[in-house]
Amino acid sequence: MKTQNLTSFSEFHLLGFSEDPDLQLILFGLFLSMYLVTVLGNLLIILAVISDSHLHTPMYFFLSNLSLSDICFISTMVPKMIVGNVTQNRVISYVGCLTQMSFYILFGCMDHMLLTVMGYDRFMNEMNPGNFSEIAEFFLLGLSEDPDLQPVLFALFLSTYLVTVLGNLVIILVIFHDSHLHTPMYFFLSNLSFVDICFTTTTIPKMLVNIQLHSKSISYTGCLTQIWFALAFLGFENGILVAMAYDRFVAICHPLRYNVIMNPKLCWLLVLLSFLISVLDAMLHTLMALRLSFCTNLEIPHFFCELAHILKLSCSDILMNNILVYVVTGLLGVVPLSGIIFSYTQIVSSVLKIPSAGGKYKAFSICVSHLIVVSLFYGTGFGVYLSSTGTLSSRKSAVASVMYTVVTPMMNPFIYSLRNKDMIGALRRFIFRTTSFP
User: Fold this and answer.
1) Which residues pair with residue 140 across a beta bridge?
2) Confidence (pTM)
3) CA distance 355 to 213
4) More confident residue, 335 or 164
5) What phi and psi values does residue 15 have, to the nearest 5 degrees?
6) Cα–Cα distance for residue pair 62/86, rounded to 1 Å
7) What is the Cα–Cα distance from 288 to 320, expressed in whole angstroms?
């Protein structure tokens, strides 16, 4: 059978609407004006919804998300076309084309889902008028109400947040700048670092602002937004860890076919699929939370809005919400974890067949960092959610959740860099180039 390397070409050529040179200036002006109107118009909607408390309702919450999605969707295509018209360059790289296609599909699907959700919101508003806008804000009690501990907590979480962001950002920059790390393993690692930055940014800054301003309030819309982003990035990280396990499985169990199986197209597809599933999951839970009404007790014994605590505060029937939580936890928690466990049973079986001790050590050393991260992520995550159904108090559960929301994202850069010779070497080269730059 004749084989062909799918990545042997490096670029495509976008022919555009017309190759007539006289039309290029007209097309440039037309698309630039439409792009600016689209971005500015949708940006005004987002700012108006955020700044006006009268618009902090589910309808305008979804509208602001639709506006953000529209900005991202059009920014995926039009700027590249405009640059091509100006520079007379119709070339787009292979990776750039795959990236553009991924974001085009992603934001297109997000538009469709948001329009569906907005239709459901209008239906629920007609069927149950007046239930959704009664709650103006919740109150985040944090980890402690002791005034003497607030400066300590502020300094501790600020330093943790800075270490997390800087550490993961360094990982991304090192992988991006070092061609030796342009492999599927480090591609997934850079995505994991990006997710960790986004996840911690969803929770910690709001806590820091509340401590600094001596305020515990978070708006109803802000709480739902925080729940959505927290669930989306948690699900995304879950998918990335599964993809990394599959990458290690192919590398050790099928080394001769590794480059064929783990091609760039599959890597991007795995990342995109993980993101789409996590976005759909987060939107489903947030949508189900919109139907809830709340009693007079609006205090959340946590430092961010977590879905489990919101359900406990509700006066509505939460049977469907709980069923959804358990079903999704089984599908998106237990099933991926089972896949990771299966991958590592196959890896262990293959490694034990290696005759030399050095070969076994090298094979296991490739996987140990991923195993540590998986253990931290799933161990602490399942521990918190199992304890929330038991006798452990809500405040102790909040303290325990710090492990997977704060500690794990902070530890990931150290776990993957300190035990990885390639990463240490790339980091040294990156520091050298950075410090020697005139």
Assistant:
1) 300
2) 0.73
3) 62
4) 164
5) -80, -20
6) 36
7) 8
Summarised one tens digit per residue, pLDDT across range 317-335 is: 888 888 888 888 778 888 8
Q: Do the beta carbons of residue 193 and residue 169 sit within 8 Å?
A: yes
* Mean model confidence pLDDT for the chain: 81
Q: Facing residues of 137 across strands?
A: 219
CA dist., res. 212 & res. 209, Å (int): 5
Where residue 219 falls (left for φ over 0; alpha for ψ -120 to 50; beta otherwise) is beta
User: What's the token pair of residue 222?
Assistant: 């802000």
Residue listed under structure tokens 């005139």: 438
In terms of average pLDDT, the best of 75-89, 330-344, 405-419 is 330-344
Query: In the predicted model, what is the mean pLDDT of residues 255-278?
Result: 88
- What domains lie within the chain, and their CATH numbers? 1-133 (1.20.1070.10), 135-436 (1.20.1070.10)
Tokens of 326: 């358990």
With contact defined as beta carbons under 8 Å apart, do 94 and 7 qualify? yes
Mean pLDDT of 270-290: 86
Select from 142, 141, 138, 167 the least CA-distant residue to 153. Answer: 142
Query: Which residues, listed in sequence order, are joined to residue 299 by a DSSP beta bridge?
Result: 139
**pLDDT of res. 426:** 76
